[in-house]
Amino acid sequence: MGAGQPVDAQQAPLSQDRFTRWVYERPFWGGLWLTLGGAWILVTMKASLKVVMHVGMQGVAGYLLPTLMILAGLLILFSPGQRLFYSIVGVLCSMGTWLTSNLGGFMVGLLLGVVGSILTFGWLPDQDPRVSRRDRRRSAQRAAQDGPAGDPGQPGSDAGTAQAGMATGTPQAAQ
After folding, report:
1. What is the mean pLDDT of the chain?
2. Three-state DSSP class for residue 131
C-alpha cells in the first residue's frame, strides 16, 4: 500500500473472494499445471546435456509442442467451456514432447502436462459438494428409522406405481 492511501479492511477480502470464485469456476489447477509443464519444457530446451533430440527443420517441433501446451493451458484458464478439447490437445502435445524436447523436459514437463490435462478432463463445473460416507450412512439410517415415504395401509398405492410405470413404457414387476 502507498503511504498516502488509506487502508480499507474490506478491500482485501472482496478481491480474495473474487479470485477464489474465479478459480472455482474453471479447472484452474489443470490449466496451471499444463502451462507450467510447457514452460518447463521450453526452459530445458537449452540444456547443455547431449540428450536433446530435435525433429524437423531447426528443431521447430521441439519449440512448437511446448508452446501449444502453454497455449492450451492458458485457454483452459480463460475459456473453460472448451476444456475437453484443450485437455486432449494438451495431453497429445505433452506426449509428443517425449521425442521432440529433451525427453519431455526430463520427464518433469511431460508429467506436469499429462497430469494437468487429466485434471482438466475430469473437472465438472456443477458438481454437488462431496458428502462423506459417514453422513450418507447416517441419513440412510434415519430414513430407515422413519419408514417408507408412502403409507403402506392405503390400498392401491402399488397399483398406481405399476400403472405409472406402464404408461412410461417401463414395465415393473408385481410384488
Report:
1. 79
2. coil
